[in-house]
Amino acid sequence: MLEAVATLLVYIIESFTGSVIENSATARCRRASSESSDNTKVEAPVQVEENPVLRDFTDFDPDDDMFQEFNPLPRNTGKMAWKRSRPPFWKSAPTCFKTVLIMQLLFGSSIGLLAIAIAVIDFNTADLCYEKTLRWNSMPHLIQSIRVTGQSIEGFLIQLWHFSVMLCMFGFSTMKELNLLTINLLAAFTDASYRLFLQMFGIYKQPWMSYPLNVLFASMVIANSCIIAKRIIPARLYNKKTLCKVAGLLALQFIVGIPISFLLVYKIFSWYNSKTEIEKVFIAGVSPLLATIPKVIARVAIPKFNLVHPGVLHLLVSSLYTGSALVFRVMQAELMSFWLFAALGVGHAVVDLVERVTVTMRDHIWEYIYKLLSRCGTSQTRNFCAGQARTPRSMRFVADVSIQLLLIEATALVSAVGFIQLYKFMYPDNFPVSKNYFWDLVWEFVRRCLTGLAIDVVFNTISVWLQVMIFNVAVLKVWNSKKWRFHVIANIICTVMVVLYFAEYLFAIVRGKNDGKTAKRFAFNCSLPFSKFY
Questions:
Q1: Which DSSP state fits 103?
Q2: Can you tell me the distance from the alpha carbon of 139 to that of 49, in angstroms, rounded to the nearest whole number?
Q3: pLDDT tens, 279-290?
C-alpha cells in the first residue's frame, strides 16, 4: 500500500514538472515551426547565448562543477537523459535517509547545542538581572558592569556579521587585500567604545541608544558590499549601475532583513508579549509571512549573480533563512502539552516539505514557459527572466539552500526547546525546587528534541528523495563532497550571529510564554553570574 502511494506521488509530481513538460514544450515548438514558412527563419524572442554549460563553475573553481545529482550516460542527449543513470527508487531512499539523519541529528543538533551554550552565557552576562532592565539605575553596579561588558562583546561580534559572510565567500586574502578586516574591526571597536562611554556617563539603556549602532551596522554592510563589488566587477563591465547592482546583491539579505528585524524587535515582540495566549498563537502563526517577500526577492535575484562561483551563492541568503527559522520557531514553540508540540512539529514539517517541493516545481514551470518563448515565439524580441529558473547555476543554488535548510531546521528546533528549558531552569516557578527538577527538565528537553528531529528526518527524507530522484538536484552529491564542511561553518556563523542579536528579545518571548502576566521569579534578585549552576 505504501509503495503504491509513493508511486502515485512520483507520477503526479513528475507529470507536472519533468519529462511531460519537456516533451510538451518540444511538441509545441515543432508545431509552431511547421506552421511557419519553410523559407523563412523565425527569430527567437530570446537570444540564448551559446556558452559551455559548466563555464559558470570552472571559471572560478575547476574542481567544482556539481549542479545535478546524476549526469547523462555517454552519447545520451536530451533534458531528461540523466534519468537513465539514476538508480532504482527503492535503493536511493536509504541513502537519503542516512544523509538527512547525519545532517540533522549530528550536525544540526550540535549547532543547536552551541546556540544553547551561547544562550547560557548571555543569560548570565548580557541579560543578567533582566527584570530590572527598564530600571537600570536600580541595578547593583557590579551587575551593571557585567551586563555592559557582555553586551559590548556581543555588539563587537555583531558588527562583524556581514564581514564574516563575505569572508566565507571570498576568503581571507581578498578581505586583507581590500583592508576590510581593519575597517570592520574599527567599526566593532566603535560599537564597544560607544556602549562603555554611555555607561561611564550614566545614560546607558536609553530608548535612543540603539539607533547610532543600527546606523553603524547598516553603513558597514553597504561599505563592505561596495568595496567588494568594485573589486570583483571586470573592467569591461564596470560602471556605476553595475556597481550598484552587484553591491545590492551582496547586501540584499541584510537590506531586506534589517527592516524586518526592526519591525520584530521594536513592534511585534512587545505587542506579542502583551497579548492573550490565543492571540499569541495567531500572531506566531502569521508572523513568518513577514519573511516571505524578502525570501522570494532574494531567491529570485541571487542566482543571477554570475561574478562568483555558484557554490557560494547560498551565503547571500543564509542569514535571512537562519534568522527567520530560529525566531519564529521560538515564537511558535508550545510549552505545556507534549502532544500539541508533536502536532505542531508535524504541521511545520509538512509545510516545509510542500514549500520545498513546490519551489522546484515552479522552477520547471518557469523553464517550460521560457522555452516556449525562446523556441516558438514570433519575430518580436523580448526579455524574459524565467530562463534563469533551471540553469546549472540556479540548480546548484537550490541544492546548497536545501542543505542549509536541513541544518537550519534542526538547529532552530533544538535551540527553541533549549531556550525554554534553560529559562525554566534558571527561573523556576517555585523555590525551593524539587530534587529531580533539573533532571526532569533535561529529560523533557531530550524527549522533545528527539521527537521533533524524528518528525523532521522523516519528512525531510521524503523531500530530499524527491529533489534527487525527480528533479535531479545535487543535494547528496554536494553534501558528500568536501563542501559539507563549508556548509557547517557557514551555518555555525549565521546561528551564532542570530543568537547574539536576538537573544535578549527571545528571552522576553520565552518569559512571556512561561509567566503570562506574572513576575514571580525568585531568581530576579540580581544574583551573580552562573549562581544557578553551583
A1: I
A2: 67
A3: 777 777 677 777
| CA proximity to 490, closest of 216, 207, 167, 211 | 167
The residues, any chain, with a CB within 8 Å of residue 237's CB and separated by 6 or more, are none
Cβ atoms 322, 500 nearer than 8 A: no
Who's near 27: CB < 8 A, 6+ residues apart? Answer: none
Reading the block at residue 95, the C-alpha cell is 541513502
Alpha-carbon distance of 324 to 326, in angstroms, equals 6
Separation CA 159–CA 191 (nearest Å) = 8
CA pair distance 213, 165, nearest whole angstrom? 19
The pTM assigned to this predicted structure is 0.83
144, HSE (Cβ side, Cα atoms, 13 Å): 18
Specify which residues 68 forms β-bridges with. 473
Contact partners, residue 437, CB within 8 Å, separation at least 6 = 425, 428
> Cell numbers 521560457 correspond to what residue?
370
pLDDT band at 515 (very low <50, low <70, confident <90, very high): low
268 vs 274: CA distance, rounded Å:
10
Cell of 261: 528585524
> What cell does 57 get?
563553475
Rounded to the nearest angstrom, the gap between the alpha carbon of residue 116 and the centroid of all alpha carbons in its chain is 18
The distance from CA 489 to its chain's CA centroid, rounded to whole angstroms, is: 13
Q: SS3 helix, strand, coil % of the chain, rounded to 5?
A: 75, 0, 25
Q: Is 456:413 a contact under the CB 8 Å cutoff? A: yes
Per-residue pLDDT band at 9 (split at 50, 70, 90): very low
pLDDT digit string, tens, across residues 169-180: 999 999 999 999
CA distance 401 to 15: 25
Q: Which of 481, 499, 302, 330 is nearest to 393 (CA)?
A: 302
Give me the mean pLDDT over the 351-372 stretch.
67
Report the C-alpha gap between 112 and 284 in whole angstroms: 21
How far is it, in rounded angstroms, from Cα 199 to Cα 144?
9
| Helix boundaries (H) for 47-206 | 55-58, 89-101, 109-123, 141-158, 161-177, 180-200
Q: Which residue has the cell 543600527?
A: 214
Single-letter amino acid code for the residue at 500 = L
Q: Specify the residue for cell string 514570433.
A: 378
The Cα–Cα gap between 290 and 503 comes to 20
Q: Identify the DSSP state of 432.
A: S
Distance CA 23, CA 145 (A): 69
> Distance (Å, rounded) from C-alpha 108 to C-alpha 157?
22
Contact indicator for 469, 89 with CB cutoff of 8 Å: yes
Q: Is the peptide bond before 432 cis (omega within 30 degrees of 0)?
A: yes
Q: Within 13 Å, how many C-alpha atoms sit on residue 516's CB side?
A: 7
Dist. CA 482–CA 504, nearest whole Å? 36
- Look up residue 179 and give its three cell numbers: 583592508
pLDDT tens for residues 318-338?
Answer: 999 999 888 888 877 765 677
